[in-house]
């Protein structure tokens, strides 16, 4: 995109590169670095297209500018090409949501359906938003160039959000048969480390890297040998990556000492509190509730409110948390978000209201798309239903 200068041409060149790869790799074999091969081919096709266009306009003087500009600015501003593209795509002329969605789609390769789930909207709605963003870029002739150093801070929050959503899409896949998409998790962690090297004094950058490290430290224990989901309370903590947890904790402490109280630092502090507890039961739940209150003040999100309700249940009991969940359900902002009925089901189960729990598990199962999560929810529903069946009429009015 940096070479092409506009979205449409960039997408066309990438598609042409994939077509060329199918032919060349079938004939010559897969190269040692397929990603570099595709990037180089797409860049050459973009340059060829630009040269053809310039020739038609008899403006030969501009033919060499894209390469020269790229070399001069990219190396000085953002040393890594992947991170550079993320900063480039998070253009301030677009609304924040459009920046993030477009970057996830074009640069990170996340599907429109999975982006839609991250934003809690339908796939159709998200597709329309991405299309509108592309049209705005084309109509306004917004130049896609690597931002100068002084322009990076205004794009930082969008870049942090892109990396975080890329991680969460891999950490718990919105769809498919696997709970974890390791390739997305690893890519997000690499980007976070590069961002830390680029902007080492930014507390939120430290917080994001810490959050990713601590959450991913549990990767090996989140599913069993058959791919079945294992709850946090039941995971083997001796198998967690203690080095990653300690590095994340150190980053959180550094960020807090630097005055960082942003959403990524606070989320990382919560994750670190989970990870450093000797057992699930011994987690410092009151302290975690304090952190969630701070997070709710810094970042008003219904998802944060739902997660806070889970912690509230450990402090004040499931009945208090169920009232919070009912309020979220009534507000409607989490409609279609399967974790809402899943949390509700667990609270009802703990209150001994098994019939209602079975209905809520069914609702969660119906809206979940990840097979590992669906299998877990089906098992929980069957268990609850064995103690109190959920009839059709109960679910309809739930």
From TrEMBL:
Name all RNA polymerase sigma factor 70 region 4 type domain ranges: 87-137
Query: One Pfam family name from the record?
Result: DUF6596
Q: Please provide the Gene Ontology terms (biological process) for this protein.
A: DNA-templated transcription initiation
Keyword annotations of the record: Sigma factor, Transcription, Transcription regulation
InterPro entries named in the record? DUF6596, RNA_pol_sigma70_r2, RNA_pol_sigma70_r4_t2, RNA_pol_sigma_r2, RNA_pol_sigma_r3/r4-like
- The answer to whether keyword Transport applies is no
Record-annotated DUF6596 domain positions: 155-255
- Listed GO molecular functions? DNA binding; sigma factor activity
Q: Where are the transmembrane segments?
A: none
Q: Which protein family is it in?
A: Belongs to the sigma-70 factor family. ECF subfamily.
RNA polymerase sigma-70 region domain: which residues? 3-53
Task: Note the SUPFAM superfamilies from the entry.
Answer: Sigma2 domain of RNA polymerase sigma factors, Sigma3 and sigma4 domains of RNA polymerase sigma factors
Protein name in the entry:
RNA polymerase sigma factor
Domain of life here?
Bacteria
